[in-house]
User: Which sequence fits this backbone?
């Protein structure tokens, strides 16, 4: 089947209809505005402290990091719904599968951002990281979204307890007793499926559903955490009776497991130096190579393809800092 004909299949049409008819969560305009306002206030206070009261530069840095956190939350509040995305983008979508426990892990906490920024080697390096967040400050899901933008809309089933969308996959929300039906429909209609370390009971059920529906050839399994080797061993032992061909005994340096047209497993490793240069993330680089092997039009993640969320954040931050600094400099000179 030609890649450009996938969206015309009955399975793809049914999946698109399910998405469009699901309950929609609209952007939270007021809360987003308040987050952006809080970010500007944080920057303003930081500049006042360092220019008027000669406080240490670390205080200014901490204020910028807090402001960055508020900007990210504001952007999350303003993200459009998955229904809006699918109405405008008629390409077949990419489905992302992950345990909900990944969502409960702090994704963009002040502590995490602070550690990432303080880990820079110089003020120049810190300024670069302000406009180009380091890997440790961005979950892999957010990094995946840039590669997948060249393939199709990036969606996942969201947790009902989630208050704001992430910067990665767009969330489809459904009732607790309907998620399995929704997943089955989505898995059949997706152009590609990315599963992040499917070792939980729910994740293994999703894997079995994908195999039974004949979707193994479009599945990409990610092993990118610190426990990736043990996760792979657990996954291999749990699925050896499900797969038509057994997985290799060792994962080695590979980060992505995918399958050819005959369902033979392929283990893809990152390259060095990483072709995905911007974040030097081995998992993203391996996923990019796996997409190329599968003839999917992944977008290489260079500086020109950085996430739109952080383009917006970086431009607003840069203009705000320059404007406020210019005002204070003018006041100090004229008075």
Assistant:
């Amino acid at each position: 089947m030609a890649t450009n004909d996938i969206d015309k299949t009955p399975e793809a049409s049914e999946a698109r209809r399910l998405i469009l008819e699901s309950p929609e969560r609209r952007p939270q305009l007021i809360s987003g505005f308040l987050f952006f306002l809080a970010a500007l206030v944080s920057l303003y206070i930081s500049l006042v402290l360092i220019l008027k009261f000669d406080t240490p530069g670390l205080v200014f840095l901490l204020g910028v990091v807090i402001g960055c956190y508020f900007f990210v939350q504001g952007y999350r509040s303003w993200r459009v719904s998955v229904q809006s995305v699918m109405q405008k983008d008629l390409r077949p979508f990419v489905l992302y599968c992950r345990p909900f426990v990944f969502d409960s892990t702090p994704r963009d906490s002040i502590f995490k951002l602070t550690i990432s920024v303080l880990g820079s080697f110089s003020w120049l390096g810190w300024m670069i990281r302000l406009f180009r967040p380091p890997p440790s400050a961005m979950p892999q899901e957010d990094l995946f979204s840039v590669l997948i933008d060249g393939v199709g809309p990036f969606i996942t089933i969201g947790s009902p307890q989630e208050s704001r969308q992430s910067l990665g996959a767009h969330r489809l929300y459904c009732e607790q007793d309907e998620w399995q039906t929704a997943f089955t429909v989505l898995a059949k209609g997706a152009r590609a499926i990315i599963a992040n370390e499917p070792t939980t009971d729910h994740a293994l059920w999703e894997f079995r559903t994908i195999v039974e529906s004949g979707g193994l050839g479009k599945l990409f399994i990610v092993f990118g955490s610190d426990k990736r080797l043990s996760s792979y061993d657990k996954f291999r032992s749990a699925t050896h009776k499900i797969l038509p061909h057994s997985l290799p005994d060792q994962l080695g340096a590979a980060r992505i497991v995918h399958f050819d047209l005959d369902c033979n497993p392929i283990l893809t490793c990152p390259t060095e130096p990483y072709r995905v240069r911007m974040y030097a993330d081995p998992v993203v680089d391996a996923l990019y190579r796996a997409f190329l092997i599968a003839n999917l039009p992944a977008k290489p993640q260079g500086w020109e393809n950085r996430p739109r969320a952080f383009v917006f954040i970086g431009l607003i931050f840069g203009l705000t800092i320059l404007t406020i600094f210019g005002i204070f400099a003018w006041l100090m000179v004229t008075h």
User: Anything to note?
Assistant: The two ends are 73 Å apart (CA to CA).
